[in-house]
Structure prediction request, 562 residues.
Amino acid sequence: MVRKVVETHGVEFSYVGRDGSGPGTKALDGISLSIEKGEFVAVVGGNGSGKTTFARMLNALFEPTAGAVFIGGIETKDKERLWEVRRLAGMVFQNPDSQIVGATVEEDVAFGPENLGLEPEEIRRRVRDALRHVGMEEDGDTPPHLLSGGRKQRAAIAGVIAMKPACLILDEATALQDPVARKDIMELLRRINREEGMTVIHITHDMEEAALADRVIVMAGGQVALDGTPREVFSRVSRLRELGVHAPYVTELFELLREEGFELPSGVLGVDEAASALGRMLTGRGYAFHTP
Amino acid sequence: MATIDGTSLDFRLLDRLSEGHSAIHRLDPRAKVLATLFFLVSVVSFGKYEVSALFPFFLYPAALIALADLPALFLVRKTALVLPFAAVIGIFNPLLDSRILLHVGPLAISGGWISCASIIVRAALTVSAAFILVSVTGFPSICAALERLGMPRTFAVQLLFLYRYIFVLIEEGKRMSLARELRTFGGRGPGMKHFGSLVGHLLLRTWERAERIHRAMLARGFTGEFHPRRPCRFGAWETLYLLGWSALFLLFRLENIPRILGTLVAGVLE
Prediction:
């Protein structure tokens, strides 16, 4: 069993120049990393940092101009095994309207398994299971355009998990969603990751979402600038600012308080953790503090 | 005046109708495609002055609407929208062909008027048959059937993409039209002057969106082949359906049924 789901070695990628004559801007510049089975990785970075290019590289939508990408041990350049790479690296895009091809939810979820050439009975089973996973068992016959944005994105996720990928890549899949739908999708991803052991690579601009991952990769200028647990990465607030991204708001707030001289820990990630840290500080100063 | 929203809804309704469960819906798409093809060939093979001989062919759309439980009014309305285009084709016939061919009481009818009527009747028959075929089969299944009947896959896939991207074009058109309305205060402001630029933008936006859709399809293992949802099996029912309709179309083509009926009725009355 291959433990490393994703492995990249010195990956470079340049878009074609504006006049079409030669290489243009270098979108990826020497990316070398590996992602293990069952990891939940958040990839963050400013606009133009190379996040989306990196995601498309993993699904073999783009081919590296230098270096190599391996998905489940298969090199993405291997044309003979392209369909296997695409099955292993399932991709969910930002706008669900751009990825739905079926006239009904069920038909759309079946699109991937049908392309894999599965038997009709197996396709039906996978569609049923995928819809159950995303909580849309009752929506099989619904035309996708009648669904809300959040449910459309759930249907798109179902369409990918029906292909039983080794890793689920989400390219800013929560960006167009309202806060409730974002929270819903994040809970769904965490559940798929925990219960199915599916590797999740979540590309996002939302640092609160990134803080929920096991590992955070910060990209800048087509390179990996920071890589570690959310606590390790987000405790480097000033470095993040240099890279054009910010830490979760609560982490930033605590950093500002620390700069003002308050004795608070760095790398605080959530509201509960922040409340406990504040409680400890206030109790230490002789104040009574009760968390609700 | 047809709106972009209305067009989009009509396309989606045709898609929804194809998900029905009637006996006609369940038939192998190849049988339905071939029967429609025979129907079209029979209808267009008549001479330009034939009108009465075409009327028995209305049995085909009427029977399918009844058997497949399709919304007759919707289909009649959709067909009627196309007829003005057919009328435009035939409108000059009365001027070009003034030879009197028929007398109805004191009224002398020229060949031009008859050929114009023939064009309109044929348009009504062929367009309604096409709408009905899409309503009982679904566009992806029609393309799959055409491919299985020997059409090169490239053409079948092109047709499917064309169909998929019509929705993309409509959606982008809707967005642009709304954005324009909001900034021109109900249609005032720059009009035709900017029409060319708008169409250009629409093309570029549709193109970009179509590329995103294609990428998403590739990401889900699409290799240039669509798979119809219903299993295909050309069995006894399909053979019966195809032979039955073909025999009827042949009969309608070879014999002028209204004339025979007219003669019979006249004979009885005499």
User: Anything to note?
Assistant: Residues 248-284 of chain A form one domain. The mean pLDDT of chain A is 88. Strands of chain A lie at 4-16, 23-36, 40-45, 66-71, 74-75, 89-92, 167-171, 199-203, 215-220, 223-228.
